[in-house]
Amino acid sequence: MADIVHLDGIWTKFLELWPVEKVRAMTLEQYHSLNDPACFQRCLESMAGMLGSIRGKSAIKFGIYERNDKDVPKEDTSHYAYSDTYAWRPSLGGSPEEAFAAVKENILSIIEAMQNRDLDAVSHDALWPMIAWKIAFLYQDRNDPQVLSVYKRAKLIAALGDDAVRLSTAELYRRLMARRNGKNLHEYSEEIWNMTSPKAGDSREETTGMPQPTASEHPIPLNQILYGPPGTGKTYATVEKALEIFAAAGMRDVGATREKKRQRFDELVADGHIRFVTFHQSFSYEDFVEGIRASTDDEGRISYQVEDGIFKELCREAHEAAKTGKTTPYVLIIDEINRGNISRIFGELITLVEASHRACLPNSPHTRDSISVRLPYSRDLFSVPENVYIIGTMNTADRSLTGLDAALRRRFSFMEMPPRPELLEGSRLQGTEFSLADLLDRINRRITVLLDKEHRLGHAWFMGLGTVVTAEALAIVFRNHILPLLEEYFFEDWEKIRWVLNDHRKELENRLLRQDEGDPLELFGENVQLPDIGQVWHWNEDAFENMDTYVQIINVGYKSEKIDEEDNFFKFDSEHEKSFKKEYSYDIYRIREYTDPPRYILIINGRVIPPEERKLKHELRPIAKKLGIDLAHNARTYDFVTTILKTWQSLKEQA
């Protein structure tokens, strides 16, 4: 049984030792020092060990650490970079200072994410995931927590069931916290931990979390394809996948943030180490490997030369670099790989790209059954070196995996990129309790039933719409992306499109699709023999700007109505009213669901405030504090809160 008082005391002590202000000013020596038991790493791992331990494995999990073997000379590897004093992950930078800057940036971004209650923004670019989530746990709002003191992803998945494996860690925490039902956080964390049988050496206080990756345990495939429906971020993910290859090869400073990663990616493209090509129906062997090209001289005479294609050129440069002792990877990204005729494009090279048939580089640790072929045009002897990587993307809406060339399927690893509605949890539909995640999930569930999962809609179409999503923003996405895709998917089977949009159950003004009411006799007269005329459908332009149109895709009985400020607004002491309105915007919406009595939701600065009195008080405390109202020491100052509560209560009574 968890000792709640003791655990709360440890939590308080940690935050007293490492308040946010001190973390912002933290130096490398304060982050980790073998001689300082109060350094950040040791406090995180040892002092706060009972709040879900992160002990075990290498200290590289912290990104950078002080070496205890300074007297032993060490050379850099693909997983470790060394100075006389420190060891760090090579991908974080070329010096201890650069690596620590990346780690500190990551830690501060986690703290900021928790202050903003944005679990999806918790990243582990410079840290192992279990370290990142323990920091998130410690710096979350203790009065309204979002993270359990369980940092082992497998434990979280086990508590929710095998279907949860596709969920992000942030979504795992959200779903588990939704089941807490008022239980103490420490006791609930222990309960979740104990839901699965412990392994030998695996305890609540000592979980190793994520094992240290090694090249042998998790080799990066030489050939891989990212597949999924449109809009799931496949092309976006190729940047991450390409940089993983260079980081595993020992390249330092591949970037800790998305902006820096993109910058590093562009540099590698400019250096020729990364190439990009899109397959299409006209793309051929001559474009990819080699072909004969005609050219004319100044006098108009035609001549023919053999020209290298993009893949042969890349392989030649990789071979030439290897002769000088450089084994830096070369990466070819093939977008829409399934749109090309694979047999025609690859030709005999489909055998050579197989990992076991790659050409070994000088001093290679691998033993391969290398194969070379003589090319048909140039008669060059050609092989594919082992430092050439191929990353392909394919839309499953165009062709399923079963429709791919069988030889290609055998030689490539496949990574599914499904829609991730959980990334949209933080974007709420204006004036409602629903998020974009709810909208996308409901649409995709219907598409899966009517077609298949390969035609689901991706989350990327909805990314970047902000935390409060307006009907106008949704109208742009639906007009430009969603509806054209649905027309393509269903071959203008308008009835099924209506089912996906829930239009057949909506009131007329909220339907995106309407049937033409025209009379054929009025159009053609009585003497024209007309065949059976199908129904004529058109888009209802008025519905695009109405939020109920989109909300009723989720719940057809849901209607949201904003209450005018002059009818119902919060009247505080005059001293506080102006400052509140200057700092905060608030709205009240009347919600009706089917024939149920109306209820009300309060939204302050775009956030839906829970109607429970305890949670409402909790949400209002920071607002009161910002306005200079001390809620802790003077009962009179509760007027601010009680005024809102009274207004809230009157609305509930009206309902």
| Derived structural class | alpha/beta
The appropriate CATH architecture of the largest domain is: 3-Layer(aba) Sandwich
Q: Please count the beta strands (DSSP E, at least 2 residues each).
A: 20
- The radius of gyration is 30 Å
**Total count of helical runs of at least 4 residues:** 24
Quaternary structure annotation: single chain
CATH topology of the largest domain, which one? Rossmann fold
* Fraction of helical residues: 25-40%
> What percentage of amino acids are in beta strands?
5-15%
| Mean pLDDT reading | 82
Give the distance, in angstroms, between the N- and C-terminal Cα atoms.
43 Å
Cross-sheet strand order for the largest sheet? 5-8-11-4-12
What is the total number of structural domains? 4
- Classified by CATH, the class of the largest domain is Alpha Beta
Largest sheet: 5 strands, parallel
Give unreliable regions as ranges. Answer: 199-218, 566-574, 631-641
Q: Which outline best applies?
A: flat
Give structural notes:
The protein has 24 helices and 20 strands. It is α/β, with parallel strands linked by helices. The chain has four domains: 4-193, no CATH class; 223-416, Rossmann fold, CATH 3.40.50; 428-520 and 533-556, no CATH class; 560-654, no CATH class. The strands form seven sheets. It has a five-stranded parallel beta sheet with strand order 5-8-11-4-12. A four-stranded antiparallel beta sheet has the order 17-18-19-20, sandwiched between helices. Strands 1-3-2 form a three-stranded antiparallel beta sheet, with helices on one face. A hairpin with a 5-residue loop joins strand 18 (586-593) and strand 19 (599-604). The longest helix is centred in the N-terminal third of the chain and has 20 residues, at 96-115. The two termini are 43 Å apart.
